[in-house]
Amino acid sequence: MASFFRELKRRNVYKVAAAYVVVAWLLLQLASILFPTFEAPAWVMKVFIAVVALGFPLALIFAWAFELTPEGIKRTEDVAPVESITHRTGRKLPLSVAVVALLAIGLLLFQMLRPRDDGARHGSPWPVQDQQRIPEKSIAVLPFESLSEDKANAYFATGVQDEILTRLAKVAELKVISRTSTQQYQSKPGSVAEIAKQLGVAHILEGSVQKAGDSVRVNVQLIKADTDAHLWAETYDRKLAEIFQVQTDIALRIASALEAKLTGREQRDIATVGTTNPQAYDAYLRGLTFDTSQSGEETQIALESFRRAVELDPNFAPAWAALANRESFYYAGNRTPEQLTRARHAMEMAVKLQPDASESYAAAGSFYYYCPKDFERALDALAKAHARSPNNAFVIMLTGAVKRRQGKLDESIELMQRAGILDPRNNDVWVNLARSYRGARKFEQAHAMFDRALNVAPQQHAILAEKGEAFIAAGDLQSGDNLLAPLPRTLASEAIDDYVWISVLRRDFPRAIALLSEAIEKGGTDEELFNGRLFLAYLRSAGGRPNEAQPIFHETIRVIEERRAQGDLSLWLGDERIGIAAELGDRATVEREAQAMLERTSGDRWRYPVSEAQVAAAFAVLGDADQAIPHIERAVSLPAHQGLTPAYLRLDPVWDKIRDDPRFRRLTEGNP
Asked: Is the pLDDT reported for residue 501 higher than 70?
């Protein structure tokens, strides 16, 4: 055995093994840098690792069986001992290993010290780009000026802009800013360079549209932002039915001017014609114009316009996809069988007509997210939509929302940040980031994101209301009061509930009841009045006037059971049924409804902690600390939309009956 090891040493097998390990490590480090740079598929790295690993035993066999001689490589057994030069090659190997090791150490230091983007650190499929570096192949399409004599046709110019953006977003080599970020700018702006800087792009496309009857004139010009040079301009005079070809030509000319290479699929997708029916296309453009609005009235116009478009042309796939997004979102707050049928039908039609289109995959993603809450199927569809339209900020943001529902908050935040690069002036991106940070109880970051949203939309009362709630959740009632006090005190105001709640947390029930009663007297929709009176009943019950609350509680139970009998699956029905049962001392109903709610929301990690908090509050009202506290522990430790905080535990009267329990007191000691 000793002679065998001496022979291994003589034949330099040990040194070859050491050299191979060092060289292999160096090659793997180089591959980890170069393969992503050249966008090599993931399997290439796997194959490379396998080949390197397989080479190790082969190298040892080669070192044993062969020897390098002045005449070349010979089998070891054919070399006489006196002719062997293994002692010389053996002395060279350590030197070679040392050189390679120095290279490896240098590469290691380079990897450790080189700057990395946030997405790369966390393995995001959509890494966050450096916002300070503006890619040369980047563009923002500003709102097209409407030159139509009929001012009612102004929506048409917006729709043409949106369609050009949709086509450009399919080009992987381009960075394309979404319409929600560009719509605040006017065509022919005073400072192209400043707008480009704000949006993080190198090029601006501006233009105008004039529509008269079935004739359309489109003027466009592509501008290099830093020099204000006009790279390309064109005027198109076409019939309305030919507008798709115009939009396709504009997108292709822009891609060519920016030297973006298009794949065959990208060329086909850009050239896709949705409809030849001018009236259907007109309705579709009207829907696109209002589809991103925060106004309920305008989004209703979008819904009706998309319905009209598919009625006029049942084979109009992009219109079916847009309708599916809108119907699915509507179902999220109106979970009736009829609405579910409408959402499913629109999604299935889009997929049937254009099964491989990014818009169809996005529609499927919306449906599975909002309707059956099948998050894995939603992610699968959205990944395919992203592959076909890499610049679609909506797809990236919706993917982030799905990840959040799965409890993957860090991934969700990364995706939202990526969407913010493509859509920096979309307040919805920053509000969603703020909600994520607020849900994680990271209030400083949440306020920073709320402020960024307010910088885009300073008069959005809904954003101010959510920022106010973040102050309240941290226990800073005065800052919440200062922010919400100037806002309208009507039932239609998004801030009314939080503003009233500040008085509740201060134990000023007369003021809380007065504020809400005043808002109810001003009137509102049937739904607003229903919710306002129910909130008032809770306040009266908590304020020591339960007899005044009970008639409203019983009427609400009747409405809840009636809606359930009609197939309404809205979660708020269960929330209110649990809360009312607790106020009426109905333990059996609390236990039955609580179990059903927790089971139903267990797969939604963003909503589930809210259910835990609802159940905990119900048992607290019943005075059952043993049942309430385990639910509180879970609710206060998990991220959730406007989730429970230690400050709420300290201040909210709903916990008064279990407040003296030592276990509860410990839970209130956390920050905030």
From this structure: yes
